[in-house]
Amino acid sequence: MASPPSIRSVHPAGDPTGNKGPKHHVDTSGGGLQEIPPAYILTVPSCRRPATPPSIPVIDLHGLHGPATRDMTVRSIAVACAEWGFFRVSREYSLGYPYNHKE
């Protein structure tokens, strides 16, 4: 298993501690260190979620049986697979055989 990445401090050019690490701040504060110096804080950009989450493509496979709807259904499957890698089937469908709830 790979070891975790190491973390090293980056000190600004005008660091008043003479480029000493965070341990120096703790050791010299006499237990009075109230906050982490800004030079040691990594700001993480905020993750913005879309206003409306994208919806998973839903395809009715019964359209494969009708000559008028077959081309559109095949195109819908192709687009869903290319853009999402999967899709949800809207009705009970099993390779053309009716689904029996009792079995």
Automatic annotation (TrEMBL):
Domain Non-haem dioxygenase N-terminal: residue ranges: 56-90
InterPro entries with a match to the protein in the record: DIOX_N, IPNS-like_sf
Gene Ontology molecular function: metal ion binding; oxidoreductase activity
Chain residue ranges for the region called Disordered: 1-34
SUPFAM superfamilies: Clavaminate synthase-like (SSF51197)
Keywords from the named record: Iron, Metal-binding, Oxidoreductase
Protein name, entry field: Non-haem dioxygenase N-terminal domain-containing protein
Species per Swiss-Prot/TrEMBL record: Acorus calamus
